[in-house]
Write a structure and sequence with these properties.
Length: about 325
């Protein structure tokens, strides 16, 4: 059997990770580099350069022009954290290196923090991944499918409500016959208007779209795409349809990843975060070693999230 070049890459080993990010001083330095790769820039007046001093355990940068003081974490997703930065780096590492992500319980045990803290860290990291992937556009050749997350646990018999069931569009971009990027988006329903809005955001004009026969998918043409519907049978035959092979594989892997790692996920609330975290990992799967540094960068460049926003995300449905 041929070696799979994703599965057999060496990634970032734990000894190498500890060598790079084992001490608090290394983690601070690496985060400074991630946030200000060209050197400090004042977030208030954009002046470059500042004097750095320490207050308690915290390092502060003071702008010589407007006198504003900035901490390394202020204005980022790490704002207000009381944890050592090396705990954050370890969380980033664990989330990146695990193919299917890490549950809050596993994080709790590995990091030695309480469950509530582990849960918040995980959701902040997933939010950073989601922000990093929000603007991705697919191009060339894209296979498309309609899918649902959750729905196995209807709330209350007789209510008829599948409250945890979330519809989404899954898309995979192919390059030379192999999957290159994926994108997942929530939709209110699979109607033509929703598919049209989705295509405008998610696809580059001129993309060739292959989908099953779902009539709403014809709306990708309104957004300037060419469309090729494939009439498939039901059950096994539809999954084995070669023109839709990769989207079915991607969806199968997504569901295995979510059900195998995370238990009792509230998809009704957090579906987009889980989907985008999977998308983030998939789209960077050829560079496992670089992913840890990239996610740290995403974390200090993403907009801060208030406590209510972590718990009640304003998820976008098209
Ligand atoms: Zn300034």
């Amino acid at each position: 059997m041929a070696m799979n070049r994703v599965q057999f890459q060496s990634g970032l080993s734990l000894p190498r990770f500890l060598q790079r990010y084992g001490s608090e001083a290394q983690c601070i330095q690496a985060l400074v580099q991630a946030r200000w790769p060209q050197g400090f820039v004042c977030p208030r007046c954009q002046h470059a350069g500042a004097s750095r001093f320490q207050r308690g355990v915290q390092w502060l940068w003071q702008c010589p022009k407007c006198r504003a003081q900035t901490s390394l974490t202020a204005g980022t997703l790490l704002a207000g954290t009381k944890l050592p930065l090396r705990t954050w780096w370890l969380a980033i590492y664990l989330i990146c290196q695990a193919k299917n992500g890490v549950s809050a319980l596993e994080l709790m045990r590995c990091l030695g923090v309480c469950y509530r803290t582990a849960w918040r860290m995980k959701h902040k990291l997933m939010a950073a991944m989601a922000q990093g992937e929000a603007g991705r556009q697919l191009r060339e050749l894209v296979q498309l499918d309609d899918a649902y997350l959750g729905g196995e646990h209807p709330r209350g018999r007789g209510a008829g409500q599948w409250t945890n069931k979330v519809p989404f569009i899954a898309a995979v971009e192919l390059h030379q016959g192999r999957p290159r990027h994926v994108r997942f988006d929530l939709v209110g329903s699979f109607c033509r208007q929703a598919v049209h809005r989705w295509a405008q955001q998610a696809l580059c004009p001129g993309t060739h779209v292959v989908s099953d026969g779902l009539s709403a998918f014809t709306a990708v043409q309104w957004a300037g795409m060419s469309h090729e519907p494939i009439v498939v049978g039901t059950g096994r035959r539809s999954v084995q349809q070669p023109r839709l092979l990769w989207i079915n594989t991607v969806l199968g892997n997504l569901k295995t990843a979510l059900s195998g790692t995370h238990h009792a996920v509230k998809f009704g609330k957090y579906a987009l975060r889980y989907l985008r975290a999977h998308q983030y990992r998939f789209n960077r799967r050829f560079d496992l070693a670089g992913m840890t540094g990239q996610l740290a960068q995403a974390l200090v460049r993403a907009q801060p999230l208030s406590e209510p926003r972590i718990r009640e995300p304003a998820e976008i449905r098209r």
